[in-house]
Design goal:
heterodimer; A: about 260 residues; alpha/beta; Rossmann fold; nine-stranded mixed sheet; two-stranded antiparallel sheet; B: about 325 residues; five-stranded mixed sheet; five-stranded parallel sheet; 7 helices; about 25% strand; binds flavin-adenine dinucleotide; binds adenosine monophosphate
Chain lengths: ~260, ~325
């Protein structure tokens, strides 16, 4: 079974986020980019399937994504069998610093997968930086494949897979899905494995990251950004200040005045 | 048009939130509020706040099944041509939103917290980057899809009733050639404690960093005599059982006090605790979205604050 895991980088939320001069986008130049956490879960689920035998895992990223080489080398270090960086073969198609929207990303991946089909595509359930960043169903619709998102476990089962799909309150459905199929992962069956830096360095010096130019079809138009806003996080909460001891006093007093902590 | 979500014969509260919003937008456009009901027609009784309920019945639609829902909904969309399709930004919307966006050729806005018409243009506000940024986007064209965050709109707009006109739509042939099936419904585990019943919760997020560090949070919870709850990543890491998870895919809680430590306040988390009477948040990032909902907040490091709290509660 050949499993393809599309991966993308997203801004690290630890960083301060600033907007572009025209206010319609995020200033990406100064940001640090990290692997989308749901793609990390998807890779883990794919590697768990691989550990059960007879499976090849290929990690795939888009060449225009910041830090994508680092992400793909890390995937190799964790045990992926191959990693591919996809470039758009059309002339002058560089997407620039704004990144590429989900429709363009899905079109690139669809072109790749039409050429080199997968039995299973497993990707993160969502990308938090895109207002419509739900890659797995987009890709499935382009390829005409069945798909399941919000998966919390995928296991080989005959000529298909058993997928655990999660709902509110911890309720879940166990589905059987025939292959080929596309799965959007919420959480892997276990926490993503760790690749030591030395191992990542090793895979980097060994090379082994392929670049492939593909010709995507024209992507569908999506939502058009008007402006970006910082949510009002100030003004609502009354901020408690002072030393940790002072703040603790104030919190305990808040609880005491409501009868939630005993004492004077 | 709203896609009704239901489990075990019960239409979700979120469905009513969406119908209320759809009715408001329909009034602006001078149109009707329609609900797509995939599955048992009897559930139309719970959708009395809609003008029209469009029902597709088929054995594959008894419970939610992604492919069956997608094919049936596509058929409904083709026949009814709504201006806008609203779904939850939870499992069903995450499954169907972008697939229908491709197949019905309509732009999608996800993580939607606000929605309206501005000078004829449909404008959505999406909470991106875990709620750290609001992206205002226009959905161009004659039709659009929005997946809406739970709690974004009020469910008050008339639950129940039963006055809607019911239209049947024949199930498309694709429902008899599905490539997936529902094997079984897995009920959630019963927990050792019911966090939804607690008066107060000490809740911990990824800011705790390691499983060992969880010890100080357990100490605080013990000192206060309340359960320890958590955000999803803490549960996914296997540090606390699923029954302690607060949020969209965990439990909804409404304690008298909710103390959040190292939780950013992603929309999926807020959905589970926004109803708490008193929310106190500790987060070193002053821009953390949790401060947009908390009543009191502090940017003191949790590792400095929690021992002080334990100390004061003990004395
Ligand atoms: C379909 C779906 C369903 C989901 N359901 C849920 C759900 O039910 N519940 C849920 O919680 N999430 C859910 N999520 C995940 C959600 O999107 C977020 O990823 C999650 O809530 C983030 O958890 P967090 O706040 O603990 O972690 P983070 O977002 O990583 O936040 C950690 C915070 O800790 C702060 N911090 C770090 N160090 C310290 C310190 N020393 N002192 C104080 N603060 C510190 C940081 O500033 C940061 O804000 C769901 C996602 C999806 C896609
Ligand atoms: N179309 C299908 N729908 C549901 N389950 C199926 C389907 N096809 C095969 N299965 C299940 O997949 C498992 C292995 O199938 P097979 O290898 O085809 O015999 C068995 O448990 C079958 O019940």
């Amino acid at each position: 079974m050949r499993i393809v895991v599309p991966m993308k980088s997203v801004p690290d939320l630890v960083e301060e986020i600033e907007f572009t001069a025209d206010g319609t986008g995020i200033e990406r130049e100064q940001l640090k980019f990290v692997l989308n956490e749901w793609d990390a879960q998807a890779l883990e689920e794919a590697l768990l399937l691989r550990d059960s035998g007879g499976v090849e895992v290929v990690a795939v990223g888009c060449a225009v994504d910041p830090e994508i080489d680092q992400i793909l080398y890390t995937a190799l270090a964790k045990g992926a069998d191959a990693a591919v960086r996809l470039a758009d073969a059309r002339a002058g198609s560089s997407s620039g610093p704004a990144g590429i929207p989900v429709a363009a990303r899905a079109a690139l991946l669809a072109a790749y997968l039409e050429d080199q089909p997968a039995d299973l595509v497993i990707s993160g359930v969502q990308a938090p930086d895109d207002p419509d960043g739900q890659l797995p169903p987009t890709l499935a619709a382009l390829l005409g494949l069945p798909h399941v998102s919000v998966a919390v476990g995928v296991e080989a089962d005959g000529d298909g897979v058993t997928v655990r799909q999660e709902f509110a309150g911890g309720l879940s459905h166990e589905l059987w899905v025939g292959l080929p199929a596309v799965i959007g992962v919420q959480s892997a069956r276990q926490a993503p494995r760790y690749a030591p830096i030395s191992r990542i360095r090793q895979t980097m010096s060994a090379g082994g990251l392929g670049e492939l130019a593909v010709t995507p079809r024209e992507p569908q138009g999506g939502p058009v950004p008007r402006r970006m806003l910082q949510p009002a996080t100030t003004g609502h909460a009354e901020m408690l200040t002072g030393s940790p001891g002072d703040v603790a006093d104030q919190i305990v007093e808040l609880l005491r005045s409501r009868g939630l902590v005993k004492g004077e | 048009m709203v896609l009704a979500e239901h489990t075990a014969g019960q239409v979700s509260e979120g469905t009513h939130e969406l119908i209320g919003k759809a009715a408001e937008l329909a009034a602006v456009l001078g149109g009707a509020t329609e609900v797509a009901l995939l599955g048992p027609r009897a559930l139309a009784d719970q959708l009395g706040d809609a003008d029209v309920v469009v029902c597709v019945e088929h054995p594959a639609l008894a419970e939610y099944l992604p492919e069956a829902y997608e094919e049936a909904l596509l058929e409904v969309l083709a026949q009814r041509s709504p201006r806008l399709l609203l779904m939850s930004n939870a499992t069903v919307g995450l499954d169907l939103g972008s697939a229908l966006s491709v197949r019905w050729e309509a732009p999608l806005a996800a993580y939607v917290a606000a929605l309206g018409f501005d000078d004829g243009a449909l404008v959505a506000t999406s909470k991106i980057l875990g709620g750290k940024v609001l992206a205002e986007v226009e959905l161009p064209g004659e039709r659009a899809i929005a997946t809406v965050l739970g709690g974004a709109f009020s469910a008050g707009a008339g639950e129940g009733g039963g006055g809607a006109e019911i239209l049947g739509v024949a199930p498309p042939a694709a429902l008899d050639a599905l490539r997936m099936s529902l094997r079984r419904v897995v009920e959630p585990d019963a927990g050792d404690v019911d966090i939804a019943a607690a008066d107060m919760l000490v809740s911990v997020g990824r800011g705790i960093e390691t499983q060992d560090n969880l010890e100080i949070m357990a100490e605080l919870a013990d000192a206060l005599g309340v359960p320890l709850s958590a955000s999803r990543p803490v549960v996914d890491a296997g540090w606390l059982p699923k029954t302690r998870q607060v949020g969209q895919s965990g439990l909804k809680v409404k304690p008298r006090a909710y103390l959040a430590f190292g939780i950013s306040g992603a929309p999926e988390h807020l959905e589970g605790m926004r109803g708490a009477e008193l929310i106190v948040a500790c987060n070193t990032d002053p821009g953390a979205p949790i401060f947009g909902i908390a009543h009191y907040g502090t940017t003191v490091d949790l590792f400095d604050l929690v021992p002080e709290l334990v100390d004061r509660v003990h004395n």
